[in-house]
Amino acid sequence: MGSTFGHLFRISTFGESHGGGVGVVIDGCPPRLEISAEEIQVELDRRRPGQSKITTPRKEADQCEILSGVFEGKTLGTPIAIVVRNKDQRSQDYDEMAVKYRPSHADATYDAKYGIRNWQGGGRSSARETIGRVAAGAIAKKILKEAAGVEIIAYVKRIKDIEAVIEPGTVTMDQVESTIVRCPDAECSDRMIDLIEHVRNQGDSIGGVVECVARGVPLGLGDPVFDKLEADLAKAVMSLPATKGFEIGSGFAGTLLTGSQHNDEYYSDQGTIRTVTNRSGGVQGGISNGEHIILRIAFKPTATIRKEQRTVTNVGEEVTLAAKGRHDPCVLPRAVPMVEAMVALVLCDHFLRQRGQCGEAD
Amino acid sequence: MGSTFGHLFRISTFGESHGGGVGVVIDGCPPRLEISAEEIQVELDRRRPGQSKITTPRKEADQCEILSGVFEGKTLGTPIAIVVRNKDQRSQDYDEMAVKYRPSHADATYDAKYGIRNWQGGGRSSARETIGRVAAGAIAKKILKEAAGVEIIAYVKRIKDIEAVIEPGTVTMDQVESTIVRCPDAECSDRMIDLIEHVRNQGDSIGGVVECVARGVPLGLGDPVFDKLEADLAKAVMSLPATKGFEIGSGFAGTLLTGSQHNDEYYSDQGTIRTVTNRSGGVQGGISNGEHIILRIAFKPTATIRKEQRTVTNVGEEVTLAAKGRHDPCVLPRAVPMVEAMVALVLCDHFLRQRGQCGEAD
Amino acid sequence: MGSTFGHLFRISTFGESHGGGVGVVIDGCPPRLEISAEEIQVELDRRRPGQSKITTPRKEADQCEILSGVFEGKTLGTPIAIVVRNKDQRSQDYDEMAVKYRPSHADATYDAKYGIRNWQGGGRSSARETIGRVAAGAIAKKILKEAAGVEIIAYVKRIKDIEAVIEPGTVTMDQVESTIVRCPDAECSDRMIDLIEHVRNQGDSIGGVVECVARGVPLGLGDPVFDKLEADLAKAVMSLPATKGFEIGSGFAGTLLTGSQHNDEYYSDQGTIRTVTNRSGGVQGGISNGEHIILRIAFKPTATIRKEQRTVTNVGEEVTLAAKGRHDPCVLPRAVPMVEAMVALVLCDHFLRQRGQCGEAD
Amino acid sequence: MGSTFGHLFRISTFGESHGGGVGVVIDGCPPRLEISAEEIQVELDRRRPGQSKITTPRKEADQCEILSGVFEGKTLGTPIAIVVRNKDQRSQDYDEMAVKYRPSHADATYDAKYGIRNWQGGGRSSARETIGRVAAGAIAKKILKEAAGVEIIAYVKRIKDIEAVIEPGTVTMDQVESTIVRCPDAECSDRMIDLIEHVRNQGDSIGGVVECVARGVPLGLGDPVFDKLEADLAKAVMSLPATKGFEIGSGFAGTLLTGSQHNDEYYSDQGTIRTVTNRSGGVQGGISNGEHIILRIAFKPTATIRKEQRTVTNVGEEVTLAAKGRHDPCVLPRAVPMVEAMVALVLCDHFLRQRGQCGEAD
User: Which residues hold NADP(+) (chains A, B, C, D) (predicted)?
Assistant: First the structure.
């Protein structure tokens, strides 16, 4: 049941890195939305391997097909199944993985949990699994944009210790996409690219922080007390591979302030209630307040590295391992569309829930 | 539907700070567990107001009653309803709140979402709501302890900029409970208490970080890809009031390392597969690996302060507000049992799910 | 998890026949609905024992209390907890039940499933459990009535072989409530009452059929393919105690017709699409079509009888048993409000779901 | 969300009769079960059109492909996606359906609910949708058989007024499959086939009753009070196309008995507690009691008939319609594997739930 996410806008993803394919079924998409495979492909292309010199050189077209739920270019309100076939399976690279557990990967825990594992690549724990999420996220984004004018933009905020200066209120998708590292701070992005290439040459890897802003989110989304908006956002992004931390608004840094420094005072902006500051990150008491929703996610350095590491086999024998497959030295550039997708899925689900429980906004 | 949490061990909490009472219904508790109101009360007493000089002086006994699901001291496998009556309602303190929105509180967002709000105190967004969680958590803790020997201990790791040094592997509940601030670092805890009292005298508030360790968690808990253990833990604690961030294992600091520095190498500990380090925080690929699960939660400074702040009324008129009610200058000491409860609820649900999907461990 | 029902309008019931009390938590009730304990009590009074000479003589006032979710007479949008205390516990009547399994009761299966059972009465399998359902149903009914003008009326259609003639399109609640057997066919109802009293005097019991009509249900409710309206209605009423069968529209009798006899031809009623006949029972393809929803439920004869029966003890010893407690010779008169409640819960949940997925109707 | 079914063994089906294909994602299948596309195909072949002279002559191979979740012939514990491509699309037959609503079909209600509809055939309301159910049911059946020795056999009990005599305790799958009408009563089955052919020649259709027995079901399945086994079974089969009624055990006929006639007395069968009769149908208080589970489902006559009928267009114009497409004159022979699948899905989900909540049986 762990591969199902959402309530009214509910997705079920499927697929391992090797095997027939990966994809998603979206159950609960509102009817009469115009959508095409091409629009979804745009997001998948932002996620796919081999898109630039700083990602894995694996070439995978990741071409999607819509099997159901869309008729004459519009959603039917019935389940939308989207499939991407698996290709380019150099599984001989993975032979060693049949027995050796890769450090900080999920090989050992999948074996422990299920007593079986598709060792031809990452199996279900491969980032390839996120194809279904990104495809569904593309539809969620469109619903939010059409129904409420919501814009969701993620970008690389920090790579290792190189931190960019970015204004969440005004950053544009074009700015994000203008660099291969998806950091819309020109000076930083060059240094980030250099660092990623340097680390790759050393057979090592690095991580960093992705920031995401959602602008134009309607008032009232979020369903206390457990399905608070920040709680569902935290779960959504912490379910992405390689994540180690989540913050909203002031985050951990906010704990160094006093209440009088931290509180967001209110004012009236020509009748609209607004906050002077936005340390709340657009959510108060688990409910969106109309300000920008701003969150940050920590991605650890890629676990797969060429450097030799100590490990064990599936029968507990101590051995060493040096990865031979092609892999990303830094997952963040490709993680950006994944974060946007997860945020879109949460907001879309809560948008429909709010309409269901409380009716149309006045 | 947002007040329901968990799947096999599913809880529904109810209650506002004012009104008849608060509580919880636990649907899916395994049968034949010995449990008493007294055991639950122990946890509620750790959560209740007025327990020490650094919490709110509100006196609330928060005495719980078990209405169903327990017979002759044992759980029946049927829903367990636990109720705590509301008392000590000095709602005249709150008259101003009928119209003035408290900054960084949920008054404005509840009004926006529901078009109505119980303004006599925090209503549903009051920390009083967590009584049901803590009561259910007490039962979840006991199941985990009896069935698998799991120990869950949370403690205050940092108050504002005073950070304690605590060894998660050996810290004991007695050590945590030996200070009123629930920081088991004697030197730090005195400074923390002084700081909290100082801040209270200034009419201000502070926040900090709670750390939680779960020891003895069985291998294999967590249900990829969405219900990864860290994802469900993140949601669980981020649904607590006043939280702004979540980390597991190396967290945000881990993003400053390279892969070769960050990866947890494996070794064989007399046949058991273990990791040399634990930057993963006990979870790999969303599944527990048998190491300690370690997480940290950022709590913002209490929003309620005596200092005067700018705000608006529910009709958008700009006014000022200075809180008159009794409140906590720092929520962390009372948040410790809440964090433990939420972690226990997640682990207990996944323990039952794992038993259901994969059967008993060998 | 089995005591939770519904998605957007989600209820969790709790309570055994003996112990502190029974009740319900409603999670997801729309805000700003006017509701009072008195309105709920009206429905509970239709359900309670001792209401007439043909029900069990047990006197239970079943007075309800609203603990949360309602403020100044209106729903808050937060969980509504409703509790009824248990009273009048003549549990000495039940001593035999600690060891002897009552035929066609749930004693043996509860012991088999849970390994424990509250034997002081029916425990969780007691019809007393339905108090929470009826209370929640009262609120669901009101939402449906206010938001869409829906009327839900159930009545006794048949007692054993005495079958009433009732016109679902015009029957009124007053007519139903005008007889203690809740059969709005004056001639039949007298014979039914006589038969029930006769059977009671013989120490035996009887069953029958309840019919329910929902009038004014909006077009479009139901969520294929699994949550078809008839599927959710079937589950809802088949979860009531003592039910053995469910029909919608033409039901089993419809299988004796040919397609040309059975199909509901369409016509245009001044622009509105209507069906000439209603063998579909108001639902086509799992979705309401605007015609009356009509369903029938088979209730078996009460399992508790004074006549001596063969049975076994919980250790498998063969014994005899003759019930001594007070009980209903026929559950149908009291089942009527339970059926209405379950139908209302399903329709209300689907009403909110439809609004969420598809937006407001034009 | 309505295309998702089950909790621990959760399926999501997708697909319209026309478009890319239909299928299912199974989320929560236990790991290490041996399964092949060939085994699933066996069940799909029992369901497919064109299998005999009394079904629709449409030729559809309905060849399934497993896209994920199975590795080297065994389940991984990860989602299993199964796809069947759509073929043989004579959609010109359906041109009339773009505007004319077929009586007792879902055309009008889908338009009312979603404001859009794939009119090239039945769309989502087509029986073709059940391919995903039958595929998932094949896996559920195998789990139940391997883990607990459960056998599920459905068969045609009645066609119109021709009722077969069948002993649920001993009927075999071979007997069922030995006739094209799937009625294991040789004398009746010939008459049924004749009747179906006769009705088809008249351009009409007929319905009937399918009975299903589950033998060897473990004690303790079912989760009161809402997820009682009979309630979930009722929902499961009532979500199949063309169903109008459900019975378990004595069903509607049982309402004609007195309690003393109806109750199932207990006896001890060499230490095992058994019932003398089985009017309960294998379920007491919502929990399986170890006796055969027996249920019956009413299927209405096929709505598609060649005879001319009155109807309206999607703009309310009154017209006539005579179906031209190929269709089944009686759905029951093909409904048999669908019923088995739904029963298997419910039992498998409850088997896993029971193991989760209560642990392994002793």
Answer: 47, 53
Q: Which residues of C touch A143 (CB under 8 A)?
A: none
Whichever domain contains B15, its CATH number is 3.60.150.10
Q: What is the DSSP string of B15-76?
A: --SSSSEEEEEEESPPTT-B--HHHHHHHHHHHSTTSSTTS--------EEE-SSEETTEE-
A243: which 2 tokens? Answer: 């994540």
Tell me A302's DSSP state: P
Q: Quote ipTM for the complex.
A: 0.97
pLDDT at res. D93: 63
Q: Is A300 annotated as a binding residue?
A: yes
Q: Which residue among B262, B285, B288 places its CB closest to the CB of A300?
A: B262
Question: How many domains are there within chain D?
Answer: 1
Chain-centre distance of CA B83, in angstroms?
Answer: 19
Distance between CA atoms of residues C171 and C296, nearest Å: 15
Structural tokens at position A201: 């040459």
User: B76: nearest CA in chain D?
Assistant: D358
CA-nearest of B302, B307, B293 to B126 is B302
Check A15 against D80: CB less than 8 A apart. no
Please give the full DSSP string across C235-248, using - where no structure is assigned.
HHHHTSTTEEEEEE
Sign of the four-CA dihedral D135, D136, D142, D144: negative
Q: Nearest residue on chain A to B272, judged by CA atoms?
A: A316
Per-residue buried b or exposed e for A3-36, using 16+ beta carbons within 10 Å of the residue's own CB: bbbbbbbbbbbbbbbbbbbbbbbbbbbbbebebe
Cα separation, D228 vs D285, whole angstroms: 7
List CB contacts (< 8 A) between C28 and chain A.
Answer: 357
CB of B255 closer than 8 Å to CB of A252: no
Average pLDDT over residues C165-188: 97
Model confidence over C5-27: pLDDT tens digits?
A: 999 999 999 999 999 999 999 99
Reported as a single tens digit per residue, the pLDDT across A148-190 is 999 999 999 999 999 999 999 999 999 999 999 999 999 999 9
Q: Do A16 and D83 touch (CB under 8 A)?
A: no
Report how many Cβ contacts below 8 Å link chain C to chain D.
377
Question: What is the predicted pLDDT for the residue at B362?
Answer: 41
D285 annotated as ligand-binding:
yes
CA distance B351 to chain C (A): 15
Q: Tokens in use for D135?
A: 């595929």
B121-140 mean pLDDT: 95
> Looking at the predicted structure, is the pLDDT value of residue C361 above 70?
no
pLDDT of residue C88: 61
The span from the CA of C83 to the CA of C26, in Å, is 12
Amino acid letter, residue A179: T
Q: What percent of chain A has pLDDT over 90?
A: 89
- Chain A positions touching B115 (Cβ under 8 A) are 358
Q: Do C15 and B68 touch (CB under 8 A)?
A: yes
Q: Tell me what pLDDT residue C205 has.
A: 98
What are the chain D neighbours of A135 within 8 Å (beta carbons)?
none
Rounded to whole angstroms, how far apart are CA atoms B334 and B328? 9
Dihedral of CA atoms C240, C243, C249, C255 in degrees, nearest 10, equals 150
When pLDDT is cut at 50, 70 and 90, the band that residue B156 belongs to is very high
Give per-residue pLDDT as tens, B108-130: 999 999 999 998 888 999 999 99
All partners of chain A with 3 or more CB pairs under 8 angstroms: B, C, D
- Closest chain B C-alpha to C233 CA, distance in angstroms: 20
